[in-house]
Amino acid sequence: MTDPRLEGLRRDAPDLRLKTDAADLEHYGRDWTRRWTPAPLAIALPASIEEVQAIVRWANVHRVALVPSGGRTGLSGGAVAAQGELVISLERMNRVLAFDPADRTLTVQPGIALEAVHNAAREHGLTYPVDFAARGSCSIGGNIATNAGGIRVIRYGNTREWITGLKLVTGSGELLDLNRGLVKNSSGYDLRHLAIGSEGTLGVVVEATLRLTDPPPPTNVMLLALPSFDVLMKVFTAFRERLQLEAFEFFTDHALRHVLAHGAQAPFEQTHPYYVVTEFAIGDEAREAAAMAAFEDCMEHGWVSDGVISQSDAQAAQLWRLREGISESLAPRKPYKNDVSVRISAMPAFLEETQALLGGAYPHFEVVWFGHIGDGNLHINVLKPEDVSDADFVAQCEQVTKLLAASLQRHGGSISAEHGIGLVKKAYLGSTRSAAEIAVMRGIKQVLDPNGLMNPGKLFD
To answer: What is the extent of the structural domain holding 60?
Structure first.
């Protein structure tokens, strides 16, 4: 039976598309986490800003909680609807609205896929440089909600650096036009940056103006085999000093084994314990010589055991697949994920402490490490054994996450580098933010979402 409250929503927004079938509720009610059973009230698919406003105003009248939804590729439970919430899927709001050649900006709706933004920028001879493996399915609205990073943060920064303007429907249904694409704007608080990374708890992003830039210079990709974990930061320093790095990504032999089993091609005859895939600018003999000099220097010091450099775009794609295919290859094992960051200068000490912590805590579990070492971001994936129940596995992992959060606090790090807090990391927010900061966050939410309807239970209760 249809909930009678939805009849009022249909009257307020007669053209609004609503879904209530069980399969749709399950599909739209969850993200890539699988720890909560989806149970939304219904799925609303607005096609305009006005329909989003109508939904939010209706929700305030009926006190119905709302969960904004993009591509639902998140890993922290930020898009989960398990308590009778109305999901607002932005997938129909997926168009490019405008390109401005003078400002070099692209204005888009929030439901557009990241890959479609890349393609649209390319049509104008420019690039939107934020990039990661889920580019074909994640949405710009979701990227903004989590301040997504990805594989090129070392060169271009996070999503935040590329948003020049936002339109936000607040928790009370008001439409805010934030920053309006200005390069300079010192007229008070920049509310745009409050919305970025807020995980849908302050409102719904309904439009974004993205800053574009020149396409990157010609690049090469190099895969390096490392003999030990200890030399990782030495290799990074050697390459960063000589080259303009576009990316510097690390993964372990465990990660490589899963990707190879998923269909990738083995890069070396022998296996090695650790690997780095790095992309760097070339284009002249001096830069190419610098790349070889960095490689040879690392070989002479014993920091690198082997290496291969791409000779074509196809080979570069093959090398990148070894890194970008990790998450997909691990998915059948239901990994428990930790996405953490520390300052690059703190990375060696943190890595040493964390290795010892995880080695002692998970002696019978397979732990797969990979991450964006160049910006201090590590992904730690603990794989569930077949003979351990989901509940027992999560309980054991969460005990270790408490210890990991304490280690991050000692090293001045963050329990969530780029996936958000959501439901998964909510208990550990205090390891990254002080009590005073969290109190300020609550106050901001109270102003923009006075009835607490926007993605409740995410970030904090």
So the answer is: 4-92
